[in-house]
Amino acid sequence: MKKIKLPINDTFSVKITADDLNKEGVETLPNGITKIPIGQLGGTTQSNELKIARENGSKVIWSTLWIEKKIEEIITKYLFSTKSGKNTSRSFFIHEIMQHNSCSFNFKKNLVLKIINKESLLIPIEKPKLEKSLKDIMMIRNAFAHGELSFDIKDGVILSYYSGGNISINIDDDYLNKIEDTFSTAKVLLEKSISTLVEKKQEFKEDEITQ
Hints:
Blueprint: E1 11-13, E2 27-28, E3 34-35, H1 46-79, H2 89-98, H3 105-119, H4 126-146, E4 148-152, E5 156-162, E6 166-170, H5 173-210
Parallel strand pairs: 1-4
Antiparallel strand pairs: 2-3, 4-5, 5-6
Helix pairs in contact: 1-3, 1-4, 1-5, 3-4, 4-5
């Protein structure tokens, strides 16, 4: 499979300090402009850093879709008991409602949290953790999907986006570790919710049989 090439704008910014003006290679031109070799300001890793940041952004978007599928799975398992048949109401619900453009991630998030609370699928301490992680995932996803990546020679890769105001985040290892932890928390708690829901459904069926 080939790697597609699409138009991408690389934005670089440079912060000049007094120390930079004293470095080797700096010269003042006859017109009064100071010329500073860009190599003196921080190396030549900009393009590679931006490439890695874009790849991380792509993983965020795809992983958010995976999280959304898990949310849909909980909602569907709660409402329907079987998977059989392509033309069942369950299939219609999944494809025509859950996966419709008007059914937003935020709506599904709120719905699945209500189900988890109603059915006690998580212990009390886990519920706010899941709610926060899902909220943060949507913010992270929107930032990478709608924001702009740039490279600052002093601060590294910067993600700029608008969310109630202009926000800029330094995409360093600490921030990336927080992203990994956020997605991992959501994954673990959603999968636990699914497992608990399946067990409850099975217990309910057994009770019906014995009555």
